[in-house]
Amino acid sequence: MRDEPLATVTLLSKANRESPDTFGFSLFARSAVPDLVEGGGATVRADAERLASVLGLEV
Fold it and tell me: N vs C: which end of the chain shows fewer Cβ within 10 Å?
């Protein structure tokens, strides 16, 4: 899934909308979001930064 940054950020955003509490504890989200901010490209960077903020991650 990490080879498809647009799909990953889309599904993570949907997971956050559906269940913010569960999303907040997701180990996958906590590891994938910083990677998306750093290397996901311009297409996903803004969404990944928003998700990082939701998770309380400093990227």
Answer: N
